[in-house]
């Protein structure tokens, strides 16, 4: 692993360890129409063995556990995984918890019927390695659902949203584009079956304070949004009242792929 990648992963561990409980209670993570689609898209059964990568607050695992035989919740951060376990213990007994790096999974080839990863890959320094690992641990014909923020194709909008995310969260690496994800899927031997591209509204006061560490940092994020051009403000639907930002809208992609 490169020194830069190691530093990024240390930032992720620090960030998620410090704010673990916020990810359990986050409305952005705990709710969403994407969660309701998981069982249908993955076609899991009571015999299925599933894997959730970078589980965070465990919301995907909570959704899948009633419908599968076993589900493995993995995360790079011990404190995050421990918090998820406390959250999930009352709901299911078929969940196993494993500390794991998404880019180097501690599982054998052809192990899982279904793999998921939701609102996390923008923290990964080597997403192409992550996709290869997903393909490696999936059984032939196994399904993979990826859900994450994505960058628009327009380079100006791409730069704006990735700068925004980095100002708000120092562990952010990059929101990748659909074309990048599609290329990585193809190279890993995953066939894209279907996808939803949606505009996701974030309640700004909660969203910005989930990861920032001071009011000074919040003000820097505010300034980045409020100083944006009219075109950018319209694209991201930046809503503000008397200079107080209320909400923004960011692109999100939900994709279903199958191992060839």
Sheet-strand content, in percent, reads 25-35%
- Tell me the total number of β-strands: 8
Task: Enter the CATH topology name.
Answer: Rossmann fold
CATH class: Alpha Beta
Q: What gap, in angstroms, lies between the N and C termini?
A: 28 Å
CATH architecture: 3-Layer(aba) Sandwich
Q: Structural class, judged by helices and strands?
A: alpha/beta
Low-confidence residue ranges: none
Rg measurement, Å: 18 Å
Which shape, going by the Cα principal axes?
Answer: globular
Please tally the helical runs, counting DSSP H or I stretches of 4 or more residues. 12
Question: In CATH, what is the homologous superfamily?
Answer: Vaccinia Virus protein VP39
What's the domain count?
1
Bin the helical content.
40-55%
Largest sheet features: 8 strands, mixed
Mean pLDDT over all positions: 90
Order of helices and strands: HHHHEHEHEEHEHHEHHHEE
Describe this structure as you would to a colleague.
The radius of gyration is 18 Å and the shape is globular. It has a single domain (3-152, 171-197, 252-259), classed as 3-Layer(aba) Sandwich (Rossmann fold), CATH 3.40.50. Helix 7 packs across helix 9 (178-188). The protein has helices at residues 3-18, 20-25, 27-30, 33-42, 59-64, 78-88, 127-137, 155-168, 178-188, 204-209, 215-226, 230-235, and strands spanning 49-53, 70-75, 95-99, 112-118, 138-149, 190-203, 239-241, 244-259. Helix content is 43%, strand content 26%. It has twelve helices and eight strands. It is an alpha/beta fold and 260 residues long. Strands 1, 2, 3, 4, 5, 6, 7 and 8 form an eight-stranded mixed β-sheet that branches. Helix 5 (59-64) links the parallel strand 1 (49-53) and strand 2. The model has no long low-confidence stretch (mean pLDDT 90).
């Amino acid at each position: 692993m490169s020194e830069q990648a190691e530093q990024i992963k240390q930032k992720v561990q620090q960030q998620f360890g410090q704010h673990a409980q916020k990810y359990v209670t986050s409305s952005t993570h705990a709710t969403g129409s994407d969660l309701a689609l998981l069982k249908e898209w993955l076609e899991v059964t009571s015999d299925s063995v599933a894997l959730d990568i970078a589980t965070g607050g465990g919301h995907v695992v909570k959704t899948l556990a009633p419908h599968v035989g076993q589900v493995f919740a993995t995360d790079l951060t011990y404190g995050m995984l421990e918090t998820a376990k406390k959250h999930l213990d009352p709901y299911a007994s078929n969940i196993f918890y494993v500390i794991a790096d998404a880019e180097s999974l501690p599982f054998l080839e052809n192990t899982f019927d279904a793999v998921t990863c939701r609102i996390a890959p923008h923290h990964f320094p080597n997403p192409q390695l992550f996709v290869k690992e997903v393909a490696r641990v999936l059984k032939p014909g196994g399904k993979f659902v990826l859900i994450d923020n994505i960058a628009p194709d327009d380079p100006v909008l791409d730069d704006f949203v990735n700068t925004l995310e980095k100002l708000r969260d120092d562990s952010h690496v990059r929101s990748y584009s659909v074309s990048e994800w599609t290329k990585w899927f193809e190279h890993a031997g995953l066939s894209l079956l279907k996808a939803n591209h949606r505009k996701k509204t974030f309640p700004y006061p909660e969203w910005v304070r989930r990861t920032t560490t001071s009011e000074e940092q919040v003000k820097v994020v505010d300034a980045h949004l409020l100083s944006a051009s009219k075109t950018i403000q319209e694209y991201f639907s930046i809503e503000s009242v008397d200079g107080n930002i209320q909400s923004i809208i960011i692109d999100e992609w939900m994709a279903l792929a199958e191992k060839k």
